[in-house]
Write a structure and sequence with these properties.
By secondary structure, this protein is an alpha+beta fold. It has four helices and six strands, in the order ααββαββαββ.
């Protein structure tokens, strides 16, 4: 009995030093909303997307953040929709900004974005702005992949407009940005 009592006392005395794992406290990998099975930050190999469900079924509340992965890359975004804007203007802004980045890469190669900021203005007072975060630097290629992913999300969800987004390159947060009136 004495040995049992001592082992219980020593176990209780050591218990505060042992880590406690609770499923609600253990970090979980985020999954790409565009397929529901790929871990965000890993290579997203989806080449084609099924016909999207009606936006109300895919995104019950438009202002909830959504994790969206860009096909063929490890780039993903956490997107928070802010408000509706004319879809044609928003998609033109994103397309023009993407083409600017592709031209930059073709002429000078992929590199970090000077001063850590990318500011692109389009028609109708729309703008796209990104800035380095988390002590990392965004590159033209990662930003291009992020813009491609943002465009895919808008077309799939039907939520065209102002949004805030966080850009990840694999496991690293590299930038935050906004698209909207500005």
């Amino acid at each position: 009995m004495r040995a049992f009592t001592l082992s219980v006392i020593s176990t209780l005395a050591l218990a505060p030093a042992l880590p406690v794992f609770s499923s609600s406290l253990t970090p979980r990998s985020q999954l790409c909303a565009n397929d529901g099975i790929t871990v965000a930050g890993t290579l997203f190999e989806r080449r084609s997307f099924p016909n999207p469900s009606p936006p109300s079924l895919v995104y019950p509340r438009a202002n909830d953040p959504v994790v969206w992965c860009t096909p063929g890359t490890q780039t993903y975004l956490i997107i928070t929709f802010v408000s509706q804007l004319p879809g044609s203007l928003v998609l033109k802004l994103l397309s023009d900004a993407y083409n600017t980045l592709v031209t930059q890469i073709a002429q000078n190669g992929d590199d970090v974005i000077p001063s850590g900021e990318f500011d692109y203005s389009g028609d109708g007072s729309l703008s796209l702005y990104t800035v380095d975060t988390n002590n990392h630097q965004q590159t033209y290629g990662v930003l291009g992949a992020a813009i491609e992913g943002l465009s895919h999300w808008m077309m799939s969800s039907g939520n065209y407009g102002a949004a805030h987004f966080i850009i990840f390159d694999g496991a690293n947060e590299v930038a935050q940005g906004t698209v909207g009136l500005g």
